[in-house]
Amino acid sequence: MKNGSLIVVLTLLVAVLILIASGPHGLNGFPLDDAWIHMVYGRSISTAGYPAYNEGIPATGSTSPLWGYVLGLIHIIFKKTDLIVLVVKMTGMALHSVAAWTCFRILKKFNLPNIVSLIGGLIIGLSPALIVASISGMEISLAYSLCLLGFAQYIEKKYLITGILLGLAGLARPEFGLVSAVLMGDMAFQIFKKRMSGKDIMQFSVPVIVAGSLFIGWNLIVDGRPFPATFYMKSGLFAHFPLLDRVRTAFKMITADIPLAGGVAWLGLFGLAFFRKPERRWFCVIFFSAVLYTLGQVMIIPPSDPQAFYYIRYLLPAIPLFWVPLMAGLWAVLMFLWRQPHSFHGKILASGLVGISVFAIAFFLILGYISWSAKYADDCRNINEVQVALGRDIDAAFASGARIGTVDAGAVKYFGQRFTLDLMGLNAPRLFQDRAMPLDALVLMPAWMKGLQDPRLEEVGRRSTLDYCVTSNPAMNTQIVMACRASVENSEISLRISGREVHVDMKGMSDAQIKELKKLLKDH
């Protein structure tokens, strides 16, 4: 079996084993509610052809429109939810194996020994964090696989294909636009040095600009702002978080697991000095792209809960970009030590470095598989037992024309299949202007709320989960369904959600209606 095929096979095998070991919740669930938001957009794309949170109303809540179209295609081909979820996970696995194979191919382009390129690709392929990301239902593996493929083409001086792949990577994860900016800067410098022509940079730039224009144009047309609604809401939540603390926390997060765990990998930075200038330039461009992506990411969304996959997933796409130059640099360091003339100590140091690296890789792989597979299974269980269960409750208890307000906007919408108002404003915030049609019920998380003491609001349903680990706040393990008891037909309710005042109109319900809702939600 060829080295590239071996990487793909082993990567897929380990991913399948982790998925099977996660049990029924891991097989048919996702570890965070945001994955179900992507599924909502995928389903709308399959029926309407464009991103919509509520049917017939274009929305800008998706930060990964390309992933939405991938999910839309899956929804067109497959109809049963459990099968759709499984195919989504398989798609993520396949994309991750492509990324591992591409790491191998990039290292091979620099004439590194087969064993070095093989190990470099395998370590990415077998990374526990990246495997879990690939089966999370998120766009992570799509984004970094496209970016790595783009770098592989850039090294081969195929600039048009590079531009197409990097443009698509930006549509999968908009922060990859920073990587395109790095390449444009590198190309501009090469033109200045007369090593590249203006035609080359045009071939690269046109598809990147087209992709960026489509992304920004859609947001402007639908919402009047250049970026998704999610950007404006999330970027303002933690403005008080100091940048230095953000960077420090992000560094700890990306170095907690293979391939950057243990600190050995960072010795590769010194090894880059041993490469010839053209090769060193390629590696520096890739490494600086990873740095810029990470900085851009933490400036937008600070890692305020480092243990939560919710925050870790934003940083994971940078890991393969860090690893490629570091792996090459590690090999260069080893060769430098080994080839020192008449230096017994150099060979001892090289052998020791290999031994430490092998031990660190084995240790962190085993530790990572144990911790990440358990966390993945528990996160999926938590989401299934609360958000997914509430979505099914809504579908069972409310008429098809009902309108629901919610703070967690994924599974409640996907399974509830009712008109849904995202109270956090992450999806189609213009819906707040629609005061003509009141809401039938609210799905709220008490941990985020203030103002639930309004005597007109009454709890009619509740879902909780044990051993909550999706975030570090255990109070987030519970969500409740609230209806409005009122003597008048409609009532305005004021809520304070994550420090923001929200006003919604609620449909007033009689005692009999409240009692019936409680019965339906309890029975279900």
Description of the molecule:
The protein has 524 residues and is an alpha/beta fold. The chain folds into two domains: 377 residues, no CATH class; 144 residues, no CATH class. It is 61% helix and 10% strand. Strand 1 and strand 2 form a beta hairpin. Helix 5 packs antiparallel against helix 6 and helix 10 packs antiparallel against helix 11.
Shape verdict: elongated
Which class of secondary structure composition applies to the elements? alpha/beta
Proportion in β-strands: 5-15%
Low-confidence region ranges: none
Looking at this protein, list some descriptive labels.
524 residues; 2 domains; two-stranded antiparallel sheet; 20 helices; 61% helix; 10% strand; elongated
Outline:
The chain has 524 residues and is α/β, with parallel strands linked by helices. It is built from 20 helices and 10 strands.
Task: Break the fold down into its secondary structure elements and pairings.
Layout: H1 3-21, H2 23-28, H3 33-48, E1 52-54, E2 57-58, H4 65-77, H5 81-109, H6 114-125, H7 128-134, H8 140-155, H9 159-172, H10 177-192, H11 198-223, H12 229-234, H13 243-254, H14 268-271, H15 277-300, H16 309-315, H17 318-338, H18 344-397, E3 403-406, H19 411-416, E4 419-422, E5 441-444, E6 449-450, E7 457-464, E8 478-485, E9 490-497, E10 500-509, H20 511-523
